[in-house]
Design goal:
With 263 residues, the protein is α/β, with parallel strands linked by helices. It has helices at 37-49, 74-87, 101-107, 121-128, 144-156, 184-191, 200-204, 207-219, 246-257, and strands spanning 13-15, 18-20, 26-30, 54-56, 91-94, 110-113, 134-137, 162-166, 196-198, 224-228. Helix 2 (74-87) links the parallel strand 4 and strand 5. The two termini are 24 Å apart. The radius of gyration is 17 Å and the shape is globular. Bound molecules: phosphoenolpyruvate (PEP). Phosphoenolpyruvate binds at residues 32, 58, 62, 94, 114-115, 137, 167, 199, 202. This is 3-deoxy-7-phosphoheptulonate synthase. Its EC number is 2.5.1.54. Residues 17-259 form the DAHP synthetase I/KDSA domain. Keywords: Transferase.
Length: 263
Amino acid sequence: LVSRENHAERSVVRVGGVPIGPGTMTLIAGPCAVETPEQTLGAAQMAQAAGATLLRGGAFKPRTSPYAFQGLGEAGLRILADVRAETGMPIVTEVVDAGDVELVASYADMLQIGTRNAQNFALLQAAGESGKPVMLKRGMNGTVEEWLMAAEYVAQRGNLDIVLCERGIRTFETATRNTLDISAVPVAQRLSHLPVIVDPSHSGGSRDLVLPLTRAGIAVGADGVIIDVHPHPETALCDGPQALVDGDLRELAKLVRDLPPLV
Ligand code: PEP
């Protein structure tokens, strides 16, 4: 279903009216985690000023440590919905458990499935039945084939509104959190008709890598980027060191504004 074999044209997925796919370079940005109404609105306004048309933000956070901030849950979803009402930005937010899909889908414009759940087949199937577009991150240890088969689980349930997200894979290299596999972008676009975006924030894990990796993603033809921003990253409850602040955002805005016309 997601293969290009029976679907020669590349697809455009619409999220609350915002297109992701060929001919666009969609900027999705917002806080890694929803913490407070002020922090989420502040991040959304920064993102919007930089040209972002979709708001990201996690209310359910899949953290490596059970002692780390796990997200606000439904209270976080309510904050996202309020910020959408204020800014007009449709929401992309993660769901980590099949049992929460209905709840998250009742607030979200797009469901995000994270790298740690890339082969959680029950979750993929539930997302496929949610009626909402799905952003499917590549498993940090997953091959492109496994990623596309995960997308197939969503598609099999009647949902072809899927966006693939390359977010870095585990390699021997420890200088970056993960290695952004930029070659996976054209490979996935050759094998699948689905849009492919990159996440330079979670792959590099560091603010100074976000712009260079964004440029790399654009250069290889990514259909969009998803980026963490935070009004006060020094106090962030999750992934502060990778969040962009105002100065970086001005550069990001320029980068997106000056893009040549995409075909
Ligand atoms: C995220 O985008 O909030 C996230 C946790 O990403 P990943 O699943 O890629 O680690």
